[in-house]
Amino acid sequence: MLYQLLFPLADQFQLFNVFRYITFRTAGATVTALILSLALGPRFIQLLRRQSVGQNIRDEGPKSHQAKAGTPTMGGVLILIAVTVPTLLWANLGNVYVWITLFTTLAFGTIGFIDDFTKVRQGRNLGLTARSKFLLQTVVGTLTGISLLVLPPAHGFEPTLAFPFFKTLVINLGVLYVPFVALVLVGASNAVNLTDGLDGLAIGATLVAASTYAIFTYIAGNRVLTDYLQVPYVPGAGELAVFCGSLVGASLGFLWFNAQPAEVFMGDVGSLAIGAAIGMMAVIAKQELVLVLVGGLFVMEALSVILQVASFKLRGKRIFKMAPIHHHFEESGWAESKVTVRFWILSILFALLSLSTLKLR
Fold first, then answer.
1. Which helix or strand (DSSP H or E) is residue 336 part of?
2. Burial class (CB in 10 A: 0-12, 13-18, 19+), 179
3. Is residue 216 over pLDDT 90?
4. What is the 8-class DSSP label of residue 159?
5. What pLDDT was estimated at residue 81?
6. Angle at which helices 96-122 and 240-258 cross, to 10°
7. In this structure, are residues 92 and 239 in contact, taking their beta carbons and an 8 Å threshold?
8. Where are the domains of the chain?
């Protein structure tokens, strides 16, 4: 909005020329999202308490978590507000990728909202069935894939898959790109959802992933940098760095209230939306496979659940004391804060490894 309003005035007021720079608007979006989160957070948490929107804790979870029952949940609504408003304020609203990403993020957030609301209304930790949730996520992911596939050639977006470490290995998926996008979005959203089990854990890892994809999206939209690094060029993708900045600021603001002991939980409305947002950044920047590294912590959490379930069904034995894996370390005697901080460190290491793929080609 500010870009459309103020940049055209740059000829009369040279100061407004700064709005042409994505880096400036990304910084503006980050600060705006942070301030918005901190300003709205206390009142929003009070509202949740007045409405008795409290978290229900699974009986089979760690015993130490039972004391968290009743903590306000659905804080992801605050995250979505703090992402959407700055994005609309600072991004170039003529950019189609901004709108597709916002739609996908809010749509996944809506699915999470329905799930959270059902849990609160029923007074137990059972919301939408896994099948219903997966079906809704798949529908939204498919619609997103179709919207990208049918973009006019003028946008320069192609249904291709680029491989890290290889300069020229690019596969055109054609119509298969649609289910591929759906797979990325559904996988990313559920991986973040599984990670959201400790105070500050998921939002801290989100902060790292969003910062990393701010770099990837900026590079993807810059012809000079893509030619130098020999990565796919996507005209207009750089504008998503502003969205990433909003997510970074929103994450910082939410972490203020979500740090141990958490005053509010994000709920599925937050985790599903965040996962979809990260997945969209990967898709638009043509760094889908690198998402395995950028979101390495999320992948590790999801794999621990898959391996645990598979092992128990096939062998009747568990691999971990409890899954997702952060609970395994809790059951091993690590304090919750220690697990969270050490997992944040892992997420930073994964992010640095992902950035190294830009030169290892």
1. helix 336-356
2. middle
3. yes
4. -
5. 98
6. 30
7. yes
8. 21-356
Q: Assign residue 184 a region (left: φ > 0; alpha: ψ between -120 and 50; beta: otherwise).
A: alpha
pTM over 0.85: yes
Do the beta carbons of residue 141 and residue 182 sit within 8 Å? Answer: yes
How confident is residue 129, by pLDDT bands cut at 50, 70 and 90? Answer: confident
Kindly report the average pLDDT of the chain as a whole number.
92
| Residue 255 near residue 203 (C-beta atoms within 8 A) | yes
Helix, strand, coil proportions of the chain in percent (round to 5)? 70, 0, 25
What pLDDT, on the 0 to 100 scale, is given for residue 59?
A: 55
Q: Looking at residues 323-347, what average pLDDT do you find? A: 95
Q: Return the closest-CA partner of residue 244 out of 220, 204, 272, 216.
A: 216
In angstroms, the CA 139 to CA 136 distance is 5
Q: Are 245 and 27 in contact (CB under 8 A)?
A: yes
| Count of C-beta atoms within a 10 Å radius of residue 335 | 12
Q: Is 161 helix (H, G, I), strand (E, B) or coil?
A: strand
Q: What is the pLDDT of residue 290?
A: 95
